[in-house]
Amino acid sequence: MTAPCLTIKNMTMAYGDFVIQRDLDFTINRGDIFIIMGGSGCGKSTLLMHLIGLQHPAKGDVFYGEESLWQADHKTRQRILQRTGVLFQTGALLSSMTLAENVALPITEHTRLGSQRIREIVSYKLALVGLAGFEDYYPSEISGGMQKRAGLARAMALDPEILFVDEPSAGLDPVSAKLLDDLIRSLRDNLGATIVMVTHELASIFAIGTNSVFLDPETKTMIASGSPKQLLAESSDPKVIRFLTRGETESRTENATENQETCDL
Amino acid sequence: MTVMTVNNAPCEINVSRKENALEAAIVGDWVLDAEIPDLEAVLAQLGEGTDIKRLVFSTKALGRWDSLLMTELIRLIDYGAKQGIQVDTSTLPEGIQGLLSLVYAVPERVGARRQEIRTPWLEVIGQGGLRIYKDSQALVVFIGETALSVAALMRGKARFRWVDLWTYIQDCGPSALPIVTLISLLVGLILAFVGAVQLALFGAQIYIADLVGLGMTREMGGLMTAIIMSGRTGAAYAAQLGTMQVNSEIDALKTMGFEPMEFLVLPRILALILIMPLLCLYADLMGIVGGALVTVNFFDVSLVQYLDRTAAAIHMADFSIGIFKCAVFGVLIALSGCMRGMQCGRSASAVGDAATSAVVTGIVFIVIADSLMTVMCNRLGI
């Protein structure tokens, strides 16, 4: 379970001369639910863009297993990225297609399955995220939470080894957010996939995160990494503690035990 | 991670009877690109008139698996459930059990699935008629609302930002000059060529000036400007307002107490009404220049002669008619662009539809209005 799945080596991210984050060095292990956290505007989503091949790093590289993502030619990069799935913040479903067509899109593109089989897989994926029977709906006809789950179904269409998730609980009510967290965790457990999640929802971070990295917008680098619960209990960095306790530093110990309890459930 | 090309063990499903239970042994690698065995044989055993009461699985020889196996299992389970057979999934690997419980965790919502309904052709025609009726109703409502906001403007009560008006004027005026120059120059050129071929037969090349001058000022200058602006500005208006609709910006304005018709639509319409006559005048000039280029270079008429003839041929009335028409076109373009934008749905494709339909509506309106006005001018003798 501890084979490195994704390694970020000495990476610097920048828009032109404007550096977002520098000297990022961390490893994501297979089977992890890896949390990328930090305050607003620290470059969490930008980091995700670099990991999924949408943005070129200013320096350094990303390794999928042993393979470099950014040294590779276009074709190799496509092949590497085909083993990943991405759930975007708002679902990013194509609005001119039904849910079934959205989920079927990557399958028809990358496999040679017949249309009947694709239909079965699409129904299975939609049922998996609790959207059985919604095949013929357009994204605009369903709620935001459902759009997000449909986005998850599309991200998982090709049984990815790594699933990237951008702010899964943003814009969802706490119950739906928790259900989505549970769904992501059980998908990890049952499919053996690795999850990389960008979020600043403390509830999610403590509930499902097994490893994490904390990005700081002021020093423009990562200032902590490790299991979120361990960070909360052991970190000596005031910024990390302030983030993990929502600024209520004195409640640190209570919070830690409380979270421990909820997680044991 | 680097394992890409492994030879998959062929996947099989073997069934064996054990009293009234059927054991399905799943063998091999069940991955998406594998050749899968036909399930019909298994399904047939579970079919009508069978005395099988239970279906159990054996997965000792199962290799890798993914969505393919899952879909097949779901098919078996659903079929079994329909036949009243007890399906025992407890011998399946933990991962598969977990996924299955997820799949069946949320039962399909009753009534969610959509049946494809065939509409009879009479209904299709009827629906089309109703749509046209509703569309024209919406058009009248929109014109009425625009009139109300213009009335508010007259009373000095319309609320919009004057800086917006200047931005729109900049957008639809000076920024449109290059394309208007190009098109009008070429239209003038074409008019001159078309006319010259006929007029040269009679040695009457000098009258190319009349043809181009009258053609541009009365008709083509305004019409071409209107068509350019419909594609350029009308579509832009629809897309801008449509995107604002998608982002709930229009709702935000309403809650802040702004009337979207005044705040968004009025300045856009004003900008086009103010700018279109000027653009038309400019297009007239460019058309005449285009005509002069052809006539002077190819048909033995001097520039002075050409200009003199042009001055004699066109009168103030011709200019006024052209400019008036163009102002009317401006209103129509702005109306259709803003109307489609405000009616836009809330998805990305709806914005595209709005822009398309703004241009189509705009051009239809322009051509109809132009015909009407030309007939009227003819009847009135101007």
Descriptive notes:
The complex is a heterodimer of chains A (265) and B (382). Chain A has 265 residues and is α/β, with parallel strands linked by helices. Chain A has 2 domains: 1-83 and 161-171 and 178-265, 3-Layer(aba) Sandwich (Rossmann fold); 88-159, no CATH class. Helix content of chain A is 40%, strand content 24%. Chain A is built from 10 helices and 10 strands. Chain A has helices spanning 44-51, 74-81, 99-110, 115-128, 144-155, 174-191, 202-208, 228-234, 238-244, 252-264, and strands spanning 4-15, 18-29, 33-38, 59-64, 67-68, 84-87, 162-166, 194-198, 211-216, 221-225. A 6-stranded mixed beta sheet of chain A has the order 6-7-8-3-9-10, with helices on both faces. Mean pLDDT of chain A is 83; it is low at 260-265. Chain B has 382 residues and is α/β, with parallel strands linked by helices. Chain B folds into 2 domains: 12-103, Transcription Regulator spoIIAA; 142-380, no CATH class. Chain B is 68% helix and 8% strand. In chain B, a hairpin with a 2-residue loop joins β1 and β2 (21-30). The N and C termini of chain B lie far apart (82 Å). The model of chain B is unreliable at 1-5 (pLDDT under 50). Chain A binds chain B through residues 5, 64-67, 79, 83, 94-96, 111-113, 117, 120-121, 123-125, 127-128, 130-140, 158-159, 161, 183, 186-187, 189-192, and chain B through 1-2, 4, 32-33, 66-68, 70-71, 74-75, 94-96, 98-99, 102-109, 112-114, 345-350.
